[in-house]
Amino acid sequence: MHTPIALLLELGVILTALSLLGTVARRFALSPVPLYLVAGLALGDGGIAPVPAARDFVDAGASIGVILLLLVLGLDFTVREFTVSVRRHRASAVVDLALNATPGAVAGWLLGLDATGILALAGATYISSSGIIARLLGDLRRLGNRETPAVLSVLVVEDFVMAAYLPLLAVVVSGGTWWQALLAVAAAMAAVVAAIAVSWRWGHHVSRILSHPDAEQVLLRILGITLIVAALAEIIHVSAAVGAFLIGLALTGAAADRARTVLSPLRDLFAAVFFLALGMSVDPGDLLPMLPAAVALAVVTGATKLATGWYAARRDGAGRRGGLRAGTALIARGEFSVVIIGLAAPTQGRLAALVTTYVMLLAICGPVLTRFAPTRPGALRPPAPRNRAAGPGPGAVSDACPRPAPPRQDSGRGEAGPG
Description:
Membrane topology: Multi-pass membrane protein
Subcellular location: Membrane
Transmembrane segments: 6-23, 60-79, 91-111, 117-138, 150-172, 178-198, 218-236, 288-312, 351-373
Largest sheet: none
Pfam families: Na_H_Exchanger (PF00999)
Domain Cation/H+ exchanger transmembrane: 18-369
């Protein structure tokens, strides 16, 4: 068997560099996400040190990375508590759509784009990055914070909106008819509703099927089923991340705890590859020409996301600092905005350069703003590993403390702590 020396060498250098960047980030209690994105800029096409032999592996690994991020995030919640939270945040979802899609639509109109370009830009400014935010909440030990259910509710409603939006955009870009668009949207939404119903009604059966005393069997079963569900979701133009999140919600009790233990190292590896790939997808030469317009759009939509998170968190009873943490967490844009531009790019040349620059700005600045959002004294120390099931340490106070766990009817699985 031929050994691909160039591939092995490039992957070795990449992983070593990511390790060093992660060490630097954690030394200053930062999330490593912005550094991974900048590294991707340096290693991608047009960067200072391209890695052509590793590019296919990185692109494939990025798809797995976002799936694992949302799968493990779903393990920290149950279908019942999550659907309750989503229902409570219907008003937040409306506010999110109005505040964040409108600036993109207005910017598209001012730039002279056609209806397809306006629709695409509105979607790109509306949708936050589930992958980046899921990693941030873990890195900054905020999974148990009182505002976190509001953040996750907004994110998943956005992903469900994408389930209807992406088929609609695909039909519009291809010049399809209105009835084809309606049919595509209806099929996607029916699939999402069916998946939620299955998770709600038969989630305990899923946990039993995927459980096994052997860690290797747990890894193979859960990862295999998750990738199959993610692929089926993509076939009907529903995000693969949504499918992975629903699998995580369906796992309960000891099965969820075991899955989290087995999957976490794999998630961390492929999550780093995902952020690297996001940076590699951008040619640095495309950033400067559209920088002024992208900065203006980023400032406006950063403020509207801040307002969205503030509103959603305050509805959950979080204090002012919790509202600011929720708002800054939602600022980052990423994978969905890139997908939208991928669909619209064949007919919207200028739009691709604008959104690429816009996404990179917020993908880098969003995590930095989140890191320095107001928090309780002592929370800015580098995060120490801890057992999430152990819950918060003594002295957690105010809106920064973990939310009270609702009564469980299905498993008794422990709530995720702040670490």
